[in-house]
Amino acid sequence: MTINRVPFRCQVCQSELFYDREVKLNTTGAELFDLGWANQSATGLVCARCGYVHLFLNNAIELWKPESGYPQP
Ligand SMILES: [Zn+2]
């Protein structure tokens, strides 16, 4: 995947493969912590190798399927 066309790797294991998962921030739990500013959905990217979750709030993320090749800089 890339962010603003910049290839992104897992911060832990440098893997390039992630599972994406939409994360709703306007949950009861979020409201408990008064996160009104976060009343939106975020994108959670779960590293396919180590499971580390990277959480993003912007729309610049582009996911690439492994079979279609990793984007070259
Ligand atoms: Zn990882």
N-to-C CA distance: 12 Å
Estimated share of beta-strand residues: 25-35%
Number of strands: 6
Q: Which kinds of small molecule does this entry bind, naming each only once?
A: zinc ion
CATH level 1 class label: Mainly Beta
Mean pLDDT: 75
Q: CATH fold name, please?
A: N-terminal domain of TfIIb
Stretches where pLDDT falls below 50 for ≥5 residues? Answer: none
Largest sheet: 3 strands, antiparallel
Helix content: under 10%
Task: Summarize the model shown.
The chain is mostly beta strands. The protein has one domain: Single Sheet (N-terminal domain of TfIIb).
List the helices and strands and how they pair.
Elements: E1 2-3, E2 6-7, E3 18-24, H1 28-32, E4 41-47, E5 53-56, E6 61-62
Antiparallel strand pairs: 1-2, 1-6, 3-4, 4-5
This protein binds zinc ion (ZN).
Zinc ion (ZN) binds at residues 10, 12-13, 15, 47, 49-50, 52.
Describe the overall structure.
The structure is a single chain. The chain has a three-stranded antiparallel β-sheet with strand order 2-1-6, with no helix packed on it. A three-stranded antiparallel β-sheet has the order 3-4-5, with no helix packed on it. The chain is mainly β and 73 residues long. 7% of the residues lie in helices and 33% in strands. The mean pLDDT is 75. The chain has a single domain, classed as Single Sheet (N-terminal domain of TfIIb). The chain is built from one helix and six strands. The protein is globular, with a radius of gyration of 14 Å. The longest helix is centred in the middle third of the chain and has 5 residues, at 28-32. The N and C termini lie close together (12 Å). The protein binds zinc ion. Zinc ion (ZN) binds at residues 10, 12-13, 15, 47, 49-50, 52. The site of zinc ion has 8 residues, from loops.
